[in-house]
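#onboarding

Welcome to the new folks! Below is a worked example of what a typical request in this channel looks like: someone posts a single protein sequence, and someone else replies with the predicted structure as tokens. Don't worry about understanding the tokens yet, we'll cover that in week two.

Example request:
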Amino acid sequence: MKNSCIAVPRILLPQPGTDMTAWAVIACDQHTSDRAYWNALDALVGDKPSTLRLTLPEIYLEDEDCPARIARISEEMHAYRARGIFRTLPPGFILVQRQTRFSPLRTGIVLAVDLEAYSYEKGSAALIRATEATILGRIPPRLKIREAAELEFPHIMLLYEDMANAVVSAARACRGERLYDFELNMGGGHVCGDFIADTAPVLAAFDKLVKDGLLFMVGDGNHSLATARAAWENIKRDLPEAERAAHPARYALCEAVNIYDQGIRFEAIHRLVKGVDPDAFARGLRPFGSAEGGLCVHGRHIPLGVAEEVPAAVAAVDAYIAGYLKERGGSVDYVHGEEAVRAYTEAHPDSVGVLLPAMEKSALFGLVKRGGSLPRKTFSMGESEEKRYYIEAKEIRA
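Example response:
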């Protein structure tokens, strides 16, 4: 079959009766400038079983206790399994439906993909390709976590093109037991998941979507998928060829979503530059196009013309920021939502925000096919609250 990149996993979920609202937490790469969010989440979870104890929010990556946090993740995974918190489903997929205050419904399918079919190299012809440039320096800290872990929890979202919505139609026709149905914490909306035991019709529908050697593009979590690939490369070096196909680390759990799904909206990812003179920064960044962009200085919006094609605008802004920081110091963060940028710059006088336009989602596959991966953080699939929450798990140890 053309879609040999898809595998049917045995998914792990918490046992029935688990407080799922405490269990599921948002992707680790969100709210990276908002410790209040993570403090509030920690208080909400308390001592209940939660993926907050099994993942590492990136806001803690630079903290002194980060190595201890990583060690605790591995210990907690082992303890959760020893306590019987998980149940293992038969081989199958999960049809996931997610509602938020931003979008009425997003429908995806949790499945596994073969990491041998994925590449983040620019110009790759792999079945699964990165949409954005991969920063190799972001892989090592994530690799430390994965190499010590027994389980993976995905926030990776893969996009595919399906104008007829044939994949989801096949999945709906095959769905069975309702596995979970609950409210997500911290404003994440509502999510439910139905088990799909008969995966053949879904696989056949995916098979028909392979075009020009491409099936999936990574919409969210590319660095997580790149880390999984790096971990697998390390493992397979010591494996006999005959054992490689069945090793669980070769396959990564993801959620696949049709790019034309009504719940997929592309939002801009703004740049938040910290530890700088905002007025000097703003004076140096001159308009370089006619499309609408902007600066946030002391909470005030200043119009800025940017390039019409969003990837070009992002590349130009990032180049300016990199040059400025190299010469004068400071740091950069990536933030969803203009209001969050405005509020931060108003509260922190040594910061400035660069507001970028959103890209049309229909342009994605064509842009990547023509020019390879886009600049890092070119687009976001919705607001922070819409990002994937950790719910399902898969074993990655033999």
